[in-house]
Design brief:
heterodimer, A: mainly alpha, about 0% strand, B: mainly alpha, 434 Repressor (Amino-terminal Domain), 5 helices, globular
């Protein structure tokens, strides 16, 4: 198996583990919270675990970039991530100012990482247009 | 950067996939290099040159001489 395939396989396993923990934490934490069965310390844990799972996703993507041995694919991945970052931060900034002027509703900050993941799709499309390939599938 | 990679590959009857496997890169990398959309790093350029038994200058055309 090629080094890139190995890197991709490791990435998928890491993401699978993170998503599993995330789903379990969100479902169990949400149910306990709605049932009023969370202590203050439990609430902190229930809130931190999903957030740390999102952080772990960024770590997994970073490791994937480091472990990719195909320099062209690595360049595409970095480019895709930069476009996603620019997209998410731009949307966050625009929304922040709009909400400061009470023009739009305030939203939970965890939507910004979600917009970053959406931005990865935009980055992949940009790679397809510029280089003729979507790059590595994330 | 223009290059002679496609010609050299065709002379040997190699597909992009075969060349990619010999260089341990993706087929997309070969395509991007051949079409001039991506300039390889110096280490990869050396690997390409060594595979064809040529110098880097015999494969890649300097932009100043283009």
């Amino acid at each position: 198996m090629s080094p890139n395939k190995l890197a991709q396989r490791r990435y998928l396993w890491r993401i699978l583990a993170v998503v599993t923990v995330y789903m379990v934490a969100v479902v169990i934490g949400g149910r306990l919270h709605h049932a009023g069965q969370l202590s203050p310390a439990g609430a902190v844990a229930a809130a931190l675990v999903p957030g740390l799972c999102i952080a772990a996703t960024f770590w997994a993507i970073g490791r994937f970039i480091v472990e990719l041995e195909d320099e062209f694919m690595r360049m595409l991945m970095v480019r895709q991530s930069l476009i996603a970052t620019a997209f998410a931060l731009s949307i966050a900034a625009i929304h922040g100012f709009l909400s400061s002027f009470d023009l739009v509703a305030r939203i939970d900050a965890y939507w910004w990482p979600v917009s970053w993941f959406f931005g990865l799709g935009i980055g992949a499309a940009a790679n397809r247009i510029r280089y003729g390939t979507w790059g590595q599938c994330l | 950067m223009k290059n002679r990679l496609k010609i050299l590959r065709a002379e040997r009857g190699w597909s992009q996939q075969v060349l990619a496997e010999r260089l341990q890169v993706s087929r997309q990398s070969i395509n991007a290099i051949e079409t001039g959309k991506y300039d390889p790093s110096l280490p990869l350029a050396f690997r390409i040159a060594e595979l064809f038994g040529l110098t880097i200058e015999q494969i890649f055309i300097s932009p100043s001489q283009d």
